[in-house]
Predict the structure.
Amino acid sequence: MHTTRYSLILILTLLFSPLSAQDNQLPPWEKGDLDIHFISTGRGNSTFVLMPDGTTLLIDAGDLNSESERYTPPVPDRSKTPGQWIADYIQQFHPEKKNGTLDYVLVTHYHDDHIGNFTPQSKTDIKGGYKLSGITEVGSIIPIRKLIDSGSDFRPLGEKGNSYLIGQLEEYRKFIRFQEKTNGMAYEKFRVGSLSQIKPVKDHAAYPDFVVKNLFSNGEIAAVSDSTIAIRKFKEGDLPPENDLSSGIRISYGAFDFYTGGDIPGIGHTGAPDNESMESLAAPVIGNVDVATLNHHGNRNSQNEFYVRTLQPRVWIGQNWTIRHPGEEVLRRIMSPYLYPGERDLFTNALHPVNESYLGDLVKHYKSKKGHIVIRVYPGGDRYDLFILDDSSAERPVVGSYSYKSK
Ligand SMILES: [Zn+2]
């Protein structure tokens, strides 16, 4: 009797004793794994990719550098800036920890929630003389080997240009020039259609079924079946919105496909037809994928019907930072069984409480509404797991996990 009671107590204790953060860490990355980390800061996008050979790629590092009740709260807290938290996160999960470098940084476009916001109040890097925020702050902590962006097409810095971008780009380019000269960083313009501009640089030969395709940039869209440019949406003299100029890539590993494409729009809410939008023009070259990030953070002008029907992802990832993310109609479209059959799961780094209340019943579609999100694709690409890491502490323990088969 006593023994039974003791056993019962022991079992209950084991079941309900809280695991320490250390016991519950993300299993370490191993050679052959593809890890895609959606880092939660509450202040814009940042995605850290660890390729199967250990090559590293960072896509964007946002920092709004301002406060508003319309923003999601900064996480884990204000003791570091978003750029510093992103660097801290990378150093935790980089195989070389604090000695790690970033083989590639891809900047999708030049808005603050993707590169940082440089204000007169921003701290200045003493040696480089450039303002520290977002990507320039990460790059001042972790050395960057190669930085890729869309260049200056359609972005004249004269009087016709977007005045907000002028100051932004000045600081960002000061950072690039300094890193090129002082730290040997290479700078390249995004090459639309390329299958090799971003590649495993440590052991390329070992992973022939791992490919990054450069899909679009500056409104130029690659052909579906080769490396040529199939569509040029803009012509010289045009001044398109910055979001339309975003660069997008597809990462394929065996049967697994992942897409991310900055802030391209899909709904012509200022009068242009949807079928002329970047989403509609790019959907065929993106193709059917396993995991997709929501374009433009799920803003209401994104994820049009044709686009959703074409991609049909099993997993949608939201990178939200404001009350507008996501739009109600966007949720209805991406979850609609009329647009594509079968199950799909939805995750986000954050959801603003006012939008959560506004969305009401639709919130049930979220598997998780908070935290860092990690996709781990296992060797060969047939299977992947999705982990949620607690973003309220610097230890980042695992608080949820899901398993999937690639399509
Ligand atoms: Zn954005």
In short: The chain has nine helices and 18 strands.
